[in-house]
Each structure stands twice: as C-alpha cells, then as structure tokens.
Write a sequence for this structure.
C-alpha cells in the first residue's frame, strides 16, 4: 500500500503536526517543482525524517524501528548480504525463532520480501526505518575490512605453525636478510593482508593508498575523491612483510631500505583492471609506501563535458585543438587532473590520419595508436632529449608530460613554430599566470604570443552525492566574502544567462541570497555528502588582444582582466556557477581555490 498525499495530509492535520492551510500551500509548491510532498516537508524542515517514517509506519500498520539504537548481531546482519542490502535498502536486524525482522525504506517491496523468505526459509517481518538508520547499519558491514585484517593478523599461522614473525638483523629492527624478507613476502598472512588492502582500495574508488609506519603501529589510508581517509591500523610487527610483499610485486630490490624506489604492477579480475604505481621512501620509523591506482579498464575515458567543461570553455578548447600547430597548455598543481585532461584531448585528436607521440613520466594510461615513451632520467632520457628525438619521428601531434625547464620550453615552442600541435602541462596557479612563467624560463615574448593557442587552468572539486542532496541558501556573511573575490554583478548576469535564476530582484545581493545551492547530508552511497569529482576551469584563449599584451610584457593581472573582458570565467567563478547548478558546494569550491 502506497501513502498518497491526501492520506499524509490528513494524518498530519489529525495529529496536530501541521495546519491544513500550510499543507495545501506546500502541496501546490511540490506540484510546481514536480517533487513529492514528503520531499518538500523534509526540505523545509517541517518534520524530521524519523518523524515522517514513524508517521508512515503508523499509517501502514507496520512496526517502525530506529536502527541507530539497535545492536545487531553480525550473524543476523549477514543473512541479507551487503550488496543486496545496499541495493534494496533493507537490513536484517533481529531473529526470533523462525521470524526474521527486516528494516526497510520501502516495506511495500513484496517481491524482495518474498525472495528473502524463500532464500532463508523464514517468515519475514517487514519494518519501516529511516535513511539515517539504514546508513548507520550499512557501516556495520564496513567492519569487514577490520574483521578480515583481524583474522589475518591475529589468527593466521606461518609454515612453522606460529603467528607471523619477521627476523630482523638491523639495529633499527627494519633490516633482515634477503632470504628472511623473501620468506616473509611469500608468507600466506602477508599475501592475504596486501591482497585485501588492494581489493578494498579498488572497491572504494581510492586514487592512492598510503602505508605509513609509526613507532608502534602501521597506519593505512585511502585517498578518495581527493581527501585522505583512515582505512586500518595494523601492528608494526607485520610492516617488514608488507613492504617486502609490495617490493616483490613491483619488482624492486627487496633488501634495499636506505634509498627511495619506484615500481609498478597490475591487478586484474573480471570486474576491473588496475595498475599500481609504487613509491617507497625511507622515513624515521621505517619505509613509507604510496601506491597510485590507475584504472585501465576499458571505457574509463571521459569527454570534456563529462569532466565539467561548460559550453563556452568546451567550444574554445575544441576550436583551438583543431588547429594544425601551436601549444595547448593545461596548468595546475599536482593532483588537479591535468594529465586526464590531456588524455581526453588526445582521444579527441586520435584519428588514423595523424601521428601522435608522447613523452610521459610516468605513462599512466595506454592509448591505442599513440606512440608513448617513458622518460628515464637515469639514462639521460629527459623531456628535452626525448623531444629532440621525437621531432625526427614525423609527428603531427606531440604531448610532453610536463615543461619543467627552459630547455624543454624552448624545444616545445620550436616544435609549435615548425608545424606541430604541442600539448603539455605546467605547475602554475592560474591561466594568465602561465604566460609570464614561460617568459621567465627564457622564452621571448613574441615567441610565446606566436605559439600559444589556449591555456586551461584547473582544479578538482568533489561532486554532491545525487542520493542525499538538500537545498540551502547563501548567508549574508558568505555573500560579503565572495563579493570581495569576484564581480558579483557580472556573475549574476551569468547565472541569469545559464537559466539558474529567473525573475526580477531589487538588487544583486537579493539575487545571490535566493540562489538554491545544494549539499549532500551523507548517506550509505557516499562519503560526507560527496561522491566522485569534477573539474572547475578557467580557459584563456590567446586572442589578438592577448597576444598584444604578451608582446608588451603585461603582467598576470592585466592578462586576466583582458581574458575576463573576452568571456573567460576564473576558476572561482566557474566553481560558483557549478555550485549554483547543484554539482558541488560553496565550501568545496572555496577549499580548492584558496591561494
């Protein structure tokens, strides 16, 4: 039985929770916005989610359960497997004889109830709960990582029947002979611990794994959507075995503890194909490991609009990359998604009629029909020396992973002048600031003006979770802060042009205070209201007027001012627009754009 709006209204009126006139107005508002009465009641905070769930349970004549107060037996919890529990928002929380109590967000899902009954051979007692309670119950499944590690560390035996013990010959307790370390790396508990760590990182969508030795413990952390989260704390006893195991996987020197080492290995299954880029460096308490996860599964390449390019920026980039020569520069700090943007552009340019060659450090993704070369400074195969060699390979398009010095910059400019399209990255904080940076490397202003086509500066922000977003409006304090950082009047017109705000307002401040931003409240499908990331950009097209400014040695501020006059939005402005569109939050935009 589904609860209709008129039934819910009658109950709320009879229970003296809300007046009929208020509910009539809310129902009209809900119809206009094409959302449910329940949704608008929650949004306007006229009733709590728990209160609404209790009301619905009373009306449906079924029990209500607050899972936040339930201490669920792990054996009962696992009657409905985690994947199925998340899919159907259903938790088995109590068992009495042949009766299994199941808390659900939709107790009307009779097919699921019938399936669970047949699967378990038990009588199912459906109960209604709320999203917050379900979210807490899902966290109980997350203990599986700790449980797996607990079993491995605490109970697994080595070949000699004893718990895992690593013999160390060094004074600091971190050494050990190569034979000891190889034995530790092949020990079953160590293999299982490392495999479990890698598996959970992949399933949780981590971009990096950090294994950090401390005085008494080993801390493991996952970077998810750009933010580090604690994954597990392990006993220090097993650190040498874990380090040895990862060194074996990455084909590194197992008995070298004093020097940094870099390596790579892959993990494949029917569901995923992930490359791990390994970096090991000695620290005070041992060896720290950082592993970058690179998803090599097919179909993981995004388009520019999927990455967050708005129409004006997309059109500019597309027009400039279609030119036969010049430089396309993508700039930003480490971890801002520059390489992903370059790969996406290469994918757009990758046609049978062109020869594409790249110089990368490291090669992060394999691309078909692209000649990718790995930089190796140890043998003097640098970006500069590699670029000289590439120019003799008859390329149409060249991608240089990074312009790090004047020599590489000079060669890239020379390549662009001689009929090649050159794509590269720099570490600068803004699009306009890139041009003076290149001239600081010793490149003449007129050469920069002649070769640069477009400069894209970017950052990555976390996306709002689509399942649990709530609307909110900007307060006056936030408005006052933002009004000092960008032109709120000009941006108000952009919001109107984008269709984000409509109607008339007495002043600009009124308009901004009425914009409906969104923020995730946190649910079982996200982390703190965020899931996934997208880019915020500023795209500076090198027009004739910008070229004139470059030739006259204009500074960053002058170049940016002219770019804004010609339609460029700064990264902060692009982020504010995307926050106003509901893709991310104001707090997230401010976090990644702060200087």
């Amino acid at each position: 039985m589904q609860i209709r709006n008129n039934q819910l209204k009658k109950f709320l009126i009879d229970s003296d929770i809300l007046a009929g006139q208020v509910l009539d107005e809310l129902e009209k508002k809900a119809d206009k916005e094409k959302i449910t009465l329940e949704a608008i009641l929650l949004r306007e905070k006229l009733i709590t989610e728990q209160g609404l769930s209790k009301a619905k349970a009373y009306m449906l004549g079924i029990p209500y359960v607050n899972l936040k107060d339930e201490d669920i037996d792990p054996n009962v919890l696992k009657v409905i497997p985690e994947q199925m529990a998340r899919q159907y928002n259903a938790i088995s929380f109590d068992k009495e004889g042949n009766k299994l109590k199941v808390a659900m967000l939709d107790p009307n899902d009779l097919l699921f109830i019938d399936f669970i009954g047949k699967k378990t051979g038990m009588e199912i007692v459906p109960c209604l709960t709320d999203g917050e309670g379900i979210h807490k119950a899902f966290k109980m499944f997350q203990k599986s990582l700790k449980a797996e590690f607990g079993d491995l560390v605490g109970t697994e035996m080595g070949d000699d029947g004893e718990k895992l013990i690593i013999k160390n010959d060094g004074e600091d307790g971190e050494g050990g002979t190569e034979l000891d370390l190889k034995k530790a790396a092949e020990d079953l508990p160590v293999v299982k611990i490392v495999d479990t760590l890698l598996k959970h990182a992949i399933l949780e969508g981590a971009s990096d794994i950090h294994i950090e030795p401390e005085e008494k413990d080993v801390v493991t952390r996952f970077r998810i959507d750009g933010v580090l989260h604690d994954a597990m704390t392990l006993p220090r006893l097993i650190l040498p075995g874990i380090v040895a195991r990862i060194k074996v996987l990455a084909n590194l020197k197992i008995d070298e503890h004093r020097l940094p080492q870099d390596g790579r290995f892959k993990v494949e299954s029917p569901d995923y194909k992930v490359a791990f880029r390994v970096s090991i460096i000695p620290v005070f308490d041992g060896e720290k490991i950082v592993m970058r996860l690179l998803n090599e599964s097919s179909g993981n390449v995004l388009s520019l609009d999927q990455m967050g390019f708005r129409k004006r920026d997309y059109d500019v980039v597309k027009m400039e990359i279609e030119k036969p020569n010049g430089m396309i520069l993508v700039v930003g700090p480490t971890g801002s998604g520059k390489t992903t943007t370059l790969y996406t552009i290469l994918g757009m340019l990758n046609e049978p009629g062109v020869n594409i060659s790249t110089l990368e450090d490291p090669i992060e993704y394999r691309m078909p029909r692209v000649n990718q070369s790995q930089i190796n400074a140890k043998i003097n195969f640098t970006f500069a020396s590699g670029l000289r060699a590439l120019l003799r390979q008859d390329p149409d398009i060249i991608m240089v992973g990074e312009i790090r010095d004047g020599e590489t910059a000079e060669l890239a400019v020379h390549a662009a002048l001689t009929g090649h399209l050159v794509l590269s990255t720099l570490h600068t904080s803004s699009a306009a600031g890139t041009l003076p940076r290149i001239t600081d490397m010793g490149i003449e202003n007129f050469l920069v003006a002649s070769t640069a086509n477009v400069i894209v500066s970017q950052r990555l922000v976390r996306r709002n979770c689509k399942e649990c977003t709530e609307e909110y409006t900007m307060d006056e304090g936030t408005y006052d802060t933002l009004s000092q950082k960008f032109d709120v009047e000009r941006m108000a017109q952009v919001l109107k042009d984008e269709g984000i705000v409509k109607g008339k307002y007495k002043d600009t401040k009124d308009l901004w205070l009425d914009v409906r931003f969104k923020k995730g409240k946190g649910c079982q499908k996200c982390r703190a209201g965020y899931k996934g990331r997208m880019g915020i950009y500023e795209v500076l097209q090198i027009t004739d007027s910008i070229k004139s400014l470059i030739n006259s040695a204009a500074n960053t501020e002058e170049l940016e001012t002219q770019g804004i006059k010609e339609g460029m939005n700064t990264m902060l402005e692009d982020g504010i627009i995307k926050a106003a569109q509901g893709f991310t939050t104001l707090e997230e935009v401010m976090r990644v754009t702060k200087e």
